[in-house]
Structure formats: C-alpha cells, structure tokens
C-alpha cells in the first residue's frame, strides 16, 4: 500500500491549485484524473480573482509563458448599444486582467506545472472505492498498470460535474430547475482581422433571456455559445434535429456577429446542455472536502466557474494544511459559509441578469462612474469584498437601481 498525505480527485484548475499549494508546503500529494490531458472542457473566459491564486501557488509563470489572449474586460452589446467594462477600473484592488484561453491547453499547463512540484498525477485512472476512518482514508485506483492500494490522511474532491466522491458517499446533488439551455462550439476564425476589435471578448444580448458569447483565442480559434430560455432551442431538441443548421439559424438573431460568423465550418458539432445549474448538499465531512463544480455551478453568463474553482481549491488546501498540522478547523464557518457568501452574490447577479434589471443598469446612458467601478469589481470575481455596496447590498441594490432607471426614462 502506498501512503500519501492528500488525495486530490481531478486535475482541473481547482485540483491543480489545491495540490500545488499542498506540495509547496511539503505534503505528498497524488491526483487521480479519469481522463487523459489535454481534454476539451468549456469555461474559457477567466476572471482576475483567479490570477491571485495562480501567483500564490507558483503556477503563474508557466501560464504566462503560453501567451494566452489577455482579457482586459468584456463588451456587452444590445441592439446598437455597448457596455464595456475594463478590469483596470476596479473598485476592489486586485488584478486588472485575466485570460481567454482554450481550456485543453490551459488545464494541461496547470497540471504539468503541478506535476513539476512533485505531485503524482495518475491520468486515465479511476477511483474504485474508498473507506474513511479517523486517520484519513484507504482506497484503490485502477489504470493501465493495474490496481494499486493507497492510504491518505485527507481527500479533496475536485472532480467537477463527475462528483466522484459525492457519488461514492451518496451526498445528495441538487439539479436546480432552470428554464435555460446552452449550445456551443469552436471554429477557425480566419477572417477575424477584417473586423474591428476582433479579439474583444463579447456578449451579444439577443433577447433579455438569450445571449451569445464570443471568445477569441490567440491560436486562431474562436469559441461561440448561445445561452438562454429553452423556448429558443426548439430546433436543437427536435427528434431529427440538425444541430449545425440550428446553430447557424441562431446567428440570424445577431446583428453584430451574424456576418462575421456566417457559413463557418465548426471544429465539432455544437454541444447542447440543459439543467446545468447544480449544487451539493454537503461540502465537507470527516477527512474530506469538495471543491469547484463539485460543490456548485451557477450559469456561464459571468464566467464564475473557474473563479469559484480556484477560490475553493486554494481555500480548502489551506484548511487541510492546518488540520493536518493538528489545528482544529471550523469547516462550516471558514469554508462553507465563506464560499456560500460569494456564490450567493453571484447568484443574485445571474438572477437579475435574466430578469433584465441588471441589463437596464448596464445600458443606462448616465451610469454613475463609481457604480460602474463597483459593478466591474463584482464581474472581476471580487465577490467577497464587503466594502463594495454591490457586494454587501447585493440582494436589493440591483432591483432598486433598475427602478431608478425606469423612473428616469419616464421623465424623458
């Protein structure tokens, strides 16, 4: 039996950040990853808050060497109106940029750098079973080399939608009822230079409850995705659906990008997902903790997925370090309540986006500069900064401001 300090399940951003931090503290860490890297995954628009986590764990230089496309902000468009946010106009002190990057290359870079820290990464490996006790856990893994038994002092489940440990321990996972769906693909954007600002990450609002993402990468590929109410996706869900044709037809709604992306050949058949919002009923237990999408996933509209993944991964790793040193950790307060505060803030903004109230504020011609700074900080991922009223008063501030916008419009 191989003895290690920490088992991490999943080599994505959450698992890599957690494993890297623990390796930096001298722990013996093994990551079990079901797939072979590089592998495709969505979530290619990143937020500045995660840059702090890459820097703190020593992963940043390897990522910088890849020269991923810099994301300095984001452009939201509706009809003929633009709302541009710039991360250098933050209310909360922090990073002023992130990246827009293909996740296959991005995640592999993170994992490779994590391995250089001495972390054992077992790809194409499954966790067969696990038993917990007061000293940690015993488990077995299987891959092409056969079956190997391990013992670990602590387990971090960063397996994302797979929810490996959650399934093994029968932790209830709730799929939140939602009226939304998403479809996405990639294509070679070989005519991008004939259009203005071709590398600008953009969100084109086609209807209050339907929007298009445009995420250009520096490798000549652009990611496209539609997210919105299921009523717009009838062509995608028909029994004899031609998904490529349905995707093309959706572009007819976009005045801004319809011409640029017309008649393009997609790198893969557009993928379609419904009921993607989910959460775990329990985030931790005796000698284990869940991180990243294993705990909660909201909506792609503000790119919060990786931000929560790295925040939870690093936070969990620091608490694991303290517990392994014999300190009593209050996991409910220091982990669950901490994470849920930020999740709740983002949940408010997702909800108010689809009600249309947040869009009213975005496109209000006289938006207050300080309010824009405060909004920008939320969209950069700084959802734990309670000095920001858009964080502290998130449950009421958007609706209140939307009513003010409505009143001002009535006066015109």
Topology, pairings included?
Layout: E1 2-9, H1 13-24, E2 29-32, H2 48-56, H3 60-64, E3 69-71, E4 73-78, E5 81-86, E6 98-100, H4 103-116, E7 120-122, E8 126-133, E9 136-143, E10 146-157, H5 164-168, E11 173-175, E12 180-188, E13 202-207, E14 210-216, E15 221-229, H6 234-237, H7 243-250, E16 271-274, E17 278-280, E18 284-285, E19 288-290, E20 296-297, H8 304-324, H9 331-355, H10 357-362, H11 369-379, H12 389-392, H13 394-411
Helix pairs in contact: 1-4, 1-8, 2-8, 8-9, 9-13
Notes on the structure:
It is globular, with a radius of gyration of 22 Å. The protein has 13 helices and 20 strands. The protein has 412 residues and is an alpha+beta fold. Strands 1, 2, 7, 8, 9, 10, 18 and 19 form an 8-stranded mixed β-sheet that branches. A 7-stranded mixed β-sheet has the order 5-4-13-14-15-12-16, covered by helices on one side. The mean pLDDT is 92.
Question: What's a quick, concise take on this entry?
Answer:
The protein is of the alpha+beta class.
Radius of gyration: 22 Å
SS element count, helices: 13
Average pLDDT rating: 92
Oligomer: single chain
Helical amount: 25-40%
Strand content: 25-35%
Distance between the termini: 75 Å
The biggest sheet, with number of strands, parallel, antiparallel or mixed sense and barrel status, is: 8 strands, mixed
Tally the beta strands.
20
Structure classification: alpha+beta
Rough shape? globular
Low-confidence stretches: none
